Amino acid sequence: MSSLLIKGGRVIDPASGFDAIADVLVRDGKTEAVGTGLAAEGVAVLDAKGAIVAPGFIDMHVHLREPGIEHAETIETGARAAAAGGFTTICCMPNTMPVNDSDTVTSYIIQRAKQVAAVNVFPIGAITKGSLGEELAAIESMREAGIVAISDDGRPVMNSRVMRRAMELARALDIPVIDHCEDLNLSAGGDMHEGAQSVRLGLRGIPSASEDVMVARDLLLAELTGARFHVAHLSTSRSVAMVAYAKSKGLRVSCEVTPHHFAITDDELATYDSNYKMKPPLRCEHDVEAVIEGIVSGVIDAIATDHAPHAGSEKMQEFERCPFGITGLETAIGLSLSELVHKGRISVARMIELFTTGPANILGLERGTLKPGTVADITVFDTEFEWQYDAQQSCSKSRNSPFHGRRFRGGPVATIVGGVVKWHRE
Amino acid sequence: MHGLLDIESLPRPEIEAILERARFFQPPPNETYRRLDVLRGKTIVNLFFEASTRTRVSFEIAAKRLGADTLSIAASGSSVSKGESLVDTLNTLAAMRPHAIVMRHAASGAPQFLARHLQIPIVNAGDGTHEHPTQALLDARTILDQRPRIEGLRVAIIGDIAHSRVARSNVHLLSKFGAKIVLCGPPQLVPRELEQLAPGVSLAFNMNEALKDADVIMMLRVQLERQHEAPMAASEYFRFYGLRLEHLKLAKPDAIVMHPGPINRGRELSSEVADSQSSVILNQVENGVAVRMAVLERVLG
Question: Does A306 participate in catalysis according to the annotation?
């Protein structure tokens, strides 16, 4: 098997508290040693001087569109975009065609990923059959086949009793329930965040309350059932406050936030550019600040992209007809550095936590650390170099990014999966 | 001026120039519009993705009076129903090299979206529940025919504000000129955030309060086609938000009543009000042509 010596970078491993200039030696797919002046005969060397060497980044919320919607993305292209964004592991949501609600689909995704994916792919199974919100999916079978969590992302379970049963089952299986928290009656027909901007633009609103109501319900059900519950793409100030409260009461609750929800506000919608259309919608300044506060205070456990590719033709329509969702894998590190680290809100080490130990702990993955003996998934990134994002050159099949043309300070340099360099900035 | 998408971003001097020019285009009493040749050789396409009679005819007459060639397309019965996307429809039309496209669309932001992808000037003839800039301009012209200035006027806009592009454009225009604007209607049709739309806006949920000392009363049509929930019963609506003669006593004695049309007698205003001395509804229609002549000339001249 191959060996690799990553030389001279600043190695930061939040799991062990390590933070120093050091070398990392990788052998047979495992991290063998972290230390200064490491040397080995005939080993390939990756010069990381000036860069940061971190455990492999994990994105616990992506849409790979395969099976069924391959014109927008495939497991292969999505995984390549992940590698180009500095991610070594991604978890794919079940809203494919067919929905990942059985071990057959789960196994297909895992097999396919083994053949073509540049990074680790862990599927998330549906909560209900067809994600229709009525009848529980084959959750135990999917668990055996390899799912790491359950979620009806994009089509939230409205029936509280069904959600309760799912949580009871998930607790027994010791997997988290991830909910896309949205009361579909409150949000019905909405295209953007409800507020002064939606009224100005004549677009129908999605009130913050549509998220808050469901976060509250799910927290109560998590208390009732004892399940591990995770709020996907949290976006409102009230949700942050409620999750903080639940944590203070000792509930097993976690949450993630997307880069776009801490980087931009609903002011962007003034152009009616559908690349700013997603769920939950871009919120107002007040919510964005609350989300960042949540990241700083530790209420928020992970950053996840909700990478949601859509073919160009689908996004080239009247705003109200365009589907929800934007791509995000390739801009996540750049946005986190520019909006959180460079603005002095959090340290680089805290940022790494949000991409590594945060999601790894939620999902129970034995990854997200550089401890010797663990799988050598490693992300090398730089905090300083300037670059411009060109969505037209994306590794993803889709181009629907609102950050096309944006200039970044800092971004991924190399992505190492199981000891193998899968991507390197040219 | 490259096209006309909205009032919000239109500078006040630009608005003043259009209103002044529109006055020049107004015909003397009992005469029709002069035929001018300022746009001879220009082609204007009226593309209406949403049913409209008055606005479409008004734009057509305006263009013809200026000597332009026009053609009107009701897009619901054309390539749109064959699955062609909005961008492709517009691209196809633009390839035939008209000088401007006047468009109405049921989706808010449709003209803004197209303006980003096409070079050709686009005149917004109403987009969804967003803006209807030429309506606000013709309303301002109508007010100024009756009053020396807009500044300081108290304007009550009453009805289905939430779904009204007419209300939004009027609020932006009147606010730029320093009017006090009261928006009034059933609470579910008057979102609280409207107060932040522009300076000088306040909200009322009671007709008597809204109409007190009003100089201008703008009634809006209830846009049932844009409401996605069960609407208020017509009788209930008329009882609490319909304009009747007795209401006019609350307003200034010389207050004017406006309506963008088409009016629903007995729903948003009584027949007596529609036909009263206070009503300037037909003046609005007449000014529509003059204002649209001024806009087309400015965009194409």
Answer: yes
